[in-house]
Structures are given as C-alpha cells and as structure tokens.
C-alpha cells in the first residue's frame, strides 16, 4: 500500500447523499477475480447511458474535473454492500482522498485498507467545497500528518481521524504483516479457549 | 456485585486477544463464512505472500451470488463460471470446506449458516457480505467485512476492531395480524433513517422481538445494515436454543445442555446500559412498501407516495425528486395503485421455510395476475426440499409462480435473474437501490405475504384485507 502523507489534487464534486455501493460499482462488474481494473466501471450507471455513451451531466465526465484526485460527496457515502470493489474502483479511477459529512462503516474501513483517506467534514465544509469546486481548476491540499485540509484561497479546516487508521495510511502498512507479529498472543488465546 | 452488561459487551470481552494504547482491539473470529464474489482477491493475496489459512476448521464456503436458479449446472456467463471455479480451486488449495452448487448443503450463505448450526450464540462471525448481520438473530456478533479483511481473517483468524457503540432498539407491544418482521424492520429504518445505526451495534429487545421465531428474528437482524449498523443482534432465549437443538454443528446430548446454559447466560443483564436507546411501538406498524431508492424510503401500504415538499432540507428534496423520477412515481399517488410487473420471493432476508409457508397461504387456490411474472427462490437446497415435502411447490406452481433452485437470484442480479429496465418488482429482498435488480429496474421491498398478495392482484394491496376477502 502506498503511504499517504500530503496530497494535493483537483476536486470533483458529487452533490448527492446516500451514494450506495451499487452506484459506485454496479453488480455486473463484481465478477472479476483481480483487484485492478475497476476504475473504468466507477459510477457506471450514472456515467454512461444505456448505449454506453458518457452522460455529459455527470460531474466525472466534465472536462474540468478530468484528473481529479479528491472526491467530495454528501452524507452516508458508500452505504450498502461490503464490496471492496467500491474503493478499488474509486482508487483505480484516480481518487486518493474522499471528503464527506459521513460514511458507511464498512466502506470507510475498506478505504483505509486500500490507502484511501476518507475525511469526515461538516456539512457546511462539504457544501463550501462543492460550491468552490464549480470553478475550474479548484484544488485542495490534504495534510494527513497535521490533519488539515486547505486551499490557496484561505479556506482551511482540521479533521479528526483515529490514531490507528492514521498510522496505517501514513506508513502504507500491510496490516496482515503487522498482525502476524502478534502470533504468540493469538496462539495463547486459542490455547486458553480450547 | 458486577456491573450489569449488555450482550454486545459480553461477547466483545470474550474475544479480545490483545489490547494496547492507540490501537483498536485485536478480536478473535470464531466463524468465517466465505462466498465466491468477495473472496478471490483475498486468496490471491495469501498466495502472493506465501500465507496459509490459519484455521480452515473455522472457515466455511458456499456459492450463492452467481448461481443460476433455473438450470444450476448451465452457467451461461463465463465470468460467473470463472468466479465459481476459482472458489472451488481456492478451497481445495487451502483446505476449506465448500458447499458447491452440487452439494446438498448449498444455499445462500446467511441461510445455511443457521441451518447447519454453524451459527451459534456468543460467536464472532464474519463474512465478506454486509448481510452477515443476519446471524445476530442467534445472539452472535456477526458483521460484514471487505475483501482485505477477509484476507486478514483467513491469515490470522483475527481483526483489528474498535469497540462499537451500543444501540438498543426497543420494540414495545405486539405486531398486529398480517404485520411481519419485514414490516417491522422496514418501519424501523423508515422511522430512524438509513444511517441511524452507523458506528453502532444494535440489540433488538422488547415484546414483539421475544414473540418472534428465529426465522423472523433473522429477517430483522438481516436488515440492520440498511439502517447503517454493521451488526444487529438479539439476546438468546429458549426459542434460540430450541431452533439449534439437534442441528449438525452444535454439541449433542449433555454437551448441548451445557452449551445452552452458557448461551442463555450471554443475554443482556437486567439494568445494563447502552450508548443510545430508541423505541418503536410494534402495534402501530402497518404492512410496509418502499417507494424510493433506499430502504428508508418506505410507507405503509395504506399511504400515498411522498412529495419533495414534505421536507425543508434541500438535499432531501433533491433525493426524493430523484427517487420519484427513477421509480416512475407521482408524488401523492396511493402506493396501492402502483401496478407491478414482477414478484420475487427469496433472498437472505425472506427465503426460509416459514417465509414460503406464509406466502403460500396467501396465494393458495388463487392465480397470479396475467401481467405479472412471479418467481419463488428458496434460500437453500434444504429449504427447497422441505417445502416440496409439504407440497408448497405445488401451491406456487398452480398459482402461476415459477419454482426455482436456491441462490441469491434476483436480489442483486449477478446471475441470470434480472429485471428489465423500467419494469417494476415487488421483492422480498433487502435493497431497493437504483439498478440493484438490473439497470433501470424499479424495486419495491415488501414482506413475503405482501409480495404474494401483489402477485395475485397485479398491484400492491393491504394483505390484512386481502386474506379476508376474494380478489377482484
């Protein structure tokens, strides 16, 4: 997993609430047995019409958001299924940071495991970013170490993140490798319960 | 005297392997259920790192999402077939027991776990599937995980988890006649919203919950995730114990009585506290129908489709407007006037024997409306056989339903069972998200009884009145 310390990137707004994982990656694309290549299917039913042509209304298709790496959305982002294909698609499309007022628990967890920073901001902060991102080339700088989001127009805010996911993201750790160093504890637990 | 504890706290304490400052707890997992969709990348990860499955004996796999329900051996989609073949190879390579499509124990993962007695009170249970919350009906702490966590559990039999906040959903009074567990959980999500449970584990308590069978409790716990909670559970009691007695994977004889005593001791102590408590009056719940594109968008069958003007919040107005457009509905129209094209009775929410029995009672001797295509998909081989033994298949077939083989089927359309764009389905499943049953498909979530009645009438009807009179 790639460490994430400071990230600067173009912002793409998605002004919708309760964006569920069936929208993030529709079920017909869950059949691949690889982790890669899901970006092309991100928000598929919203990005493309029935004939597979890009929907010009959808923000991700707008030329001004091409290359965006920070996705900003409404509350309860990622609700629904546990499919990790959802964060895989978000990441493979090029997003490294998501900013929303709230997330579904499983989705948020899955983001950390893949090195995606899912920032919880207030509804006002999210609305401010969505409005600012209407102008071309709007970008944000995210400093995970200091837990600060800022733009170059003087707008900034701090965000909360628990110590463990922060450490995981900053170091890009392989969690299983870390856990296996607790092997004696796991064995001890199993013996005590046997 | 010890501080009273709720069941969530008790199970948690029994499973902490390790605690340290600044980290979540390292939690031991007693049962890991695996299916074909969310596991291939996890097994691949083990292979790439030269790791093994630590406890194949605590791991159990099945195939359900991709399984065809008409001719289960004919898998038309080569990618579906590859995903199922991959699971078979992975289970062989890593020594994991698999109920493949030919196995008599095959079925939907959340149906077979309880059926086989793998699901037991006090266990920590995970699966790469958000409806793992179903197993909470037994007083197990059961939750869905992503594929990275699947790999983590395969390799270590543990997960790093922060202790959850606890939420008590108190269901006072009794459900009325014709009102089901499905109506109750929809009404709970409708009342408190699709994210009221985020960050919590729910314990359902109260008279209506105590009165429920295990199958009804599973329906309630199954949809905890639709209210945002990764897990929802119910303290074990005599009903739990009697359901499990004699099942294949539970202890037998005297050992069972000992286990039963241990299980019942897990029940929440008198006077235990929760981080949050919410209450609902079961007697006020009516049969529910979802009108929109998330499970919280539900109304009683007697009500009208809401209008964007029913809220002052801009984001909600927008959401209602978008849902109405997607669903092809008018604000203010009675939900009972909505004509349907399909009926699906099945899924991990409502495909157990009692669900099929109740639906069959509604349709016995009647005919499916000519404009409706109706299918019944039992949750497992074992449910199917038991239903056939009682002649339920005949009741359904004579009424004009198709009687299928077990699988996830039309709940999520990863197999051949898909609703065409623009068509409308009364479905006993758990999600009415856009495109869930097929691109452009319009899903209305209901109970098996309400789905059965809608199949006969061709539109939504109040099942409480329906059973009392002949169909027009």
UniProtKB/TrEMBL annotation, chain A:
Matches recorded under Gene3D superfamilies: Aconitase, domain 4
Statement: the UniProt record of this protein carries the keyword Amino-acid biosynthesis: yes
Pathway: Amino-acid biosynthesis; L-leucine biosynthesis; L-leucine from 3-methyl-2-oxobutanoate: step 2/4
InterPro entries in the cross-refs: 3-IsopropMal_deHydase_ssu, Aconitase/3IPM_dehydase_swvl, AconitaseA/IPMdHydase_ssu_swvl, IPMI_Swivel, LeuD
Pfam families assigned: Aconitase_C
EC number: 4.2.1.33
Keywords, sorted A to Z: Amino-acid biosynthesis, Branched-chain amino acid biosynthesis, Leucine biosynthesis, Lyase
Catalytic activity: (2R,3S)-3-isopropylmalate = (2S)-2-isopropylmalate
Residues annotated as domain Aconitase A/isopropylmalate dehydratase small subunit swivel: 1-123
PANTHER family documented for this protein: 3-ISOPROPYLMALATE DEHYDRATASE SMALL SUBUNIT, 3-ISOPROPYLMALATE DEHYDRATASE SMALL SUBUNIT 2-RELATED-RELATED
Subunit structure as annotated in this protein's UniProt entry: Heterodimer of LeuC and LeuD.
Family: Belongs to the LeuD family. LeuD type 1 subfamily.
Function: Catalyzes the isomerization between 2-isopropylmalate and 3-isopropylmalate, via the formation of 2-isopropylmaleate.
Stored NCBIfam families: leuD (TIGR00171), PRK01641.1 (NF002458)
Protein name per Swiss-Prot or TrEMBL: 3-isopropylmalate dehydratase small subunit
UniProtKB/TrEMBL annotation, chain B:
PROSITE patterns found in the cross-reference section: ACONITASE_1, ACONITASE_2
SUPFAM superfamilies linked to this entry: Aconitase iron-sulfur domain
Biological pathway: Amino-acid biosynthesis; L-leucine biosynthesis; L-leucine from 3-methyl-2-oxobutanoate: step 2/4
Residues binding [4Fe-4S] cluster: 348, 408, 411
Enzyme class per UniProt: lyase
Domain Aconitase/3-isopropylmalate dehydratase large subunit alpha/beta/alpha: residue ranges: 9-458
Its EC number(s): 4.2.1.33
Cofactor(s) named in the record: [4Fe-4S] cluster
Keyword match tRNA-binding: no
InterPro entries registered for this protein in UniProt: 3-IsopropMal_deHydase_lsu (IPR004430), Acnase/IPM_dHydase_lsu_aba_1/3 (IPR015931), Acoase/IPM_deHydtase_lsu_aba (IPR001030), Aconitase_4Fe-4S_BS (IPR018136), Aconitase_4Fe-4S_dom (IPR036008), IPM_dehydratase_rel_enz (IPR050067), IPMI_cat (IPR033941)
Pfam families linked to this entry: Aconitase (PF00330)
Known catalytic reactions: citrate = D-threo-isocitrate; (2R,3S)-3-isopropylmalate = (2S)-2-isopropylmalate
Keywords, in A-Z order: 4Fe-4S, Amino-acid biosynthesis, Branched-chain amino acid biosynthesis, Iron, Iron-sulfur, Leucine biosynthesis, Lyase, Metal-binding
Cofactor note text: Binds 1 [4Fe-4S] cluster per subunit.
Function field: Catalyzes the isomerization between 2-isopropylmalate and 3-isopropylmalate, via the formation of 2-isopropylmaleate.
The family this protein is said to belong to: Belongs to the aconitase/IPM isomerase family. LeuC type 1 subfamily.
Subunit structure comment from the entry: Heterodimer of LeuC and LeuD.
Protein name: 3-isopropylmalate dehydratase large subunit
Lineage summary: Bacteria, Bacillati, Bacillota, Bacilli, Bacillales
